[in-house]
Structure prediction request, 458 residues.
Amino acid sequence: MKPTRRELLKGLGALGLLGALGPGQAQAKAARPIPWRNWSGAQSCLPAARLAPASEGLLAEALRTAAAGVRPVGAGHSFSALVPTDGAVLSLANLHGMIGHDAKALTSEWWAGTPISQMGAPLQQAGLALPNMADIDYQTLGGAIATSTHGTGPRFGSYSDQVTGLRLLTANGDAIDCDAQHHPYVFDAARCSLGALGVVTRVRLQNRKAFRLHRREWVQRTEELLEDVPRLLREHDHFEMNVLLHSDVAVAMAMDETDDPRTLAKEPGGDVDKVALLQRVHLEWRNSPRGYARVLNFLAKHAVSFPEVVDDSWKVFANVRDVRFNEMEYEVPAEAGPTCLREILKKIRDERIDTFFPIEYRYVRRDNAMLSMFQGRDSCAISVHQYYRMDHHNVFAQIEPIFWKYEGRPHWGKLHSLNARLLAPLYPRWKEFLAVREALDPGGKFLNAHLRSVLGVG
Prediction:
């Protein structure tokens, strides 16, 4: 007896082959692939399939039968071309939430499809917290560790550095549970894998006891802040600054652990008003550098307020970023950070480069994951942004060579122009990673054009 159309659609849905589409849309899905775009809109593709398995078992079966070009999609918050594929876009949206925790060991285990924005409250209820967080929490946990996404603080590593164990499903559907004692070679590669080894489904994290943070922001001359960096890093748990381009000032931010009582929660608003103000000033004053600087210096000090905040850590670390942009970020040796930033700012001012988004400046502790940008060295992370409606190619092309002078490593989730020939000398464990990748995925099931260029795989 032949199965009915309804039975066939039900079976495909169970395998996740229909992605987020309902039965009524299945016929259109089969006849017309649906475009995929990242958050900024700069990356896109027309995948032949969208996979969203409802279990590890179904994921393993899908991987065994899938053709080449399977790319995990995360939250689509990477700016580089990690996802675009003609094959299958794979979402772990159905594998999310906390699996369990150990209050004594201060660890927790999570499905890799969990958005980081949904981790703070369950951890708080368990008396735990992430030691550090990025200032954006839209990413999924799997995507964040795949690219060594990070926050700021010279005594804190990236999300990859918080991982104490994980489960990796390989191209043939086999599961590898690895940590520092079991398959340590795979573990060191999979903690920052770009999705090139397989699909991470479960992640075990080293947490700490829940805590509160005191956040303070202030406006100060950029040069004064750079001169004062050693003290600021020594005296504060977390420090960063956002430099206002074409001006003399930056908005500095420090966050420190505290037992003080909570204040009013941070304002829920995002960046729309601030970005609109910067854009308006840029359009009106970009042809008058001296006036441009004077206007921004004045507005930064007198037109924007920065209320202090004390609250649970996960509520303080993250910010609302509701204005889209494209981003290039490089990690340079920590000691080179101030000099590199000065050269970038001089280039932007001297060449009157057409950009107004602030530059973000942070510090991250070293780790030992094979392809982590922080492998073997404490780093300064410098992020250059461009408003998504403005062309970013020329801006980034003018600034990127400055990072190369300081042996900068590009953030894997951000835009850059390097290929394997230029990347390999920057990573002492480069060949080790390639050996792990070849052993786990010799057929290149998880590669796309970008990864073939970045990793040098033909």
In short: The first strand starts at residue 36 and ends at 37. Confidence is low (pLDDT under 50) at residues 1-31.
